[in-house]
Amino acid sequence: MSFLLLIMGASALAWLVRRLAGGRPGLRWAMRWGMGLGFVFTGVDHFVNAQLRYVPMIPDLLAAQALFWVYLTGVAELAGGLALLLPQRLLDRVGLPRLHQLAGLGLAALLVCVVVANVHVAQQGQQVHGLPFGAWYYWVRPLLQPVFVLWALYCSGVWAGFARGAVPADGR
What we know:
The protein has helices at residues 2-20, 27-48, 50-54, 66-85, 88-93, 99-124, 135-155, 158-164.
């Protein structure tokens, strides 16, 4: 739920800043910025709080390589988040017109994979350092994963591509 609040707040802030600057922010654009900023934040946090927050979340089956998995997911979150933040004009200019869509697909796949860690925390009755909520919170987190997956697919234009057969050049 904290990630949901983070990306919603970042989306609202991005929309407001663009609006105040005289631009015309679209919902998809604001959501893309919110998700991008959210993943950059959490990606950096994987390196800052690896041992304290993320290593304890790793299931026993992967515990021997826990730090590797934490760093790998941190790199994936940073890469996906930064890719979502790049302007479409720049991507077109350098020959990467579908990078937002690739980032959305990659982040959606990552979100599906990390649900294992969220379920592990809930089953073990663990607390995650920095998220001092009751046990209910850790059972709600895995249920929010589909919301995040759909958000990633929508804001990156993947969902629009399936629905309409094409993605607008500006990603809105």
